[in-house]
């Protein structure tokens, strides 16, 4: 009887556990997580902060999930060391858990630059439910909060703060917000929506220092150009990096993330990785990449779980995609946001409600942006994911009436 150990209790870990149990009904499955909560939807923590949903309403699986699948869940206990030769995981509370098959689904850790004052009370990150709950206790209407970072996390938390009646200033180092997902035109639309909601947006600058009052609580920030902004909290929302501490100095092959093959297996036999910590094959880049996206993590976890349980499966590759709704503006993007190679072609169309763009290379879609008007975006992203040659009908791709009827038989 095999011992399966999964470190991580988010999308990838849950996908793996379900796949394992689909194949092996007898093996022992242990999930280890330093968070005390049952599996929940990380993208939904902003809804908890906005008080649109309670923590119980963002659970990824029911509370009975672990018992129903016969999973031992060691929640609120951190894995601190892996003995790869002895097939053992050591936990912070002193427990030792043996494994025959190991999955590393440890996710990402927030990027916090060396800003002076970053350890003060009132400075937060925003990647976990605990972050949302801590912020919820601190906030009151009319306060000013500075959000460092205008990417996915920064926009998500800013939208929630506005719904709580908090005044928000976004400080983004790039010259535009959502710069890794959108082109300049799309970013301008997103910024306009944020400003219309009352958000102050400062681009091309960053926070150099966080100020404290006499009680050592946050009272403001100083930007790199000397400007000072009074605030009651700071949220560092720059992004995440793969959490690699458990494999540091180990035999596991690491680049930007843990390198895996098409079976999601590392170079160490019987050790797998998935989700935000793994470098898996990217269809658009045609190379391994870290793609911290929820559906990709679940799919990678399923592939890993099937292989761990002895059923061969291959990861089909991911195509980065995001679906957002901030400040009432719906955005869907996938692949690359702008043409980068010689011969790349951009097709654009402005509509009364928004903007559409498709990027082609060698007759295939490598990127798409839909801002405001997202109708039919799913068809476009499907064509991109399946790497369909769209040369014969490319002019129709951004048309308002584009649909399945335009596809060749």
What topology emerges from the helices and strands here?
Blueprint: E1 3-7, H1 11-23, E2 28-33, H2 45-49, H3 65-68, E3 71-75, E4 79-83, E5 88-91, E6 96-98, E7 101-104, E8 108-110, E9 123-124, H4 129-138, E10 144-148, H5 152-163, E11 167-172, H6 184-196, E12 200-203, E13 207-212, E14 218-223, E15 228-230, E16 233-236, E17 240-242, E18 258-259, E19 271-273, E20 278-282, E21 287-289, H7 294-308, E22 321-326, E23 329-335, E24 345-351, E25 354-361, E26 364-371, H8 377-385
Parallel strand pairs: 1-2, 1-7, 2-3, 7-19, 9-16, 10-11, 10-16, 11-12, 18-20
Antiparallel strand pairs: 4-5, 5-6, 8-17, 13-14, 14-15, 20-21, 22-23, 23-26, 24-25, 25-26
Structural account:
A hairpin with a 4-residue loop joins strand 4 and strand 5. Helix 1 (11-23) runs parallel beside helix 7 (294-308). The relative contact order is 0.13. Helix content is 20%, strand content 30%. Strands 3-2-1-7-19 form a 5-stranded parallel β-sheet. Strands 9-16-10-11-12 form a 5-stranded parallel β-sheet, with helices on one face. The model has no long low-confidence stretch (mean pLDDT 93). The chain has helices spanning 11-23, 45-49, 65-68, 129-138, 152-163, 184-196, 294-308, 377-385; strands spanning 3-7, 28-33, 71-75, 79-83, 88-91, 96-98, 101-104, 108-110, 123-124, 144-148, 167-172, 200-203, 207-212, 218-223, 228-230, 233-236, 240-242, 258-259, 271-273, 278-282, 287-289, 321-326, 329-335, 345-351, 354-361, 364-371. The protein starts with a strand and ends in a 24-residue tail after the last helix. With 409 residues, it is an alpha/beta fold.
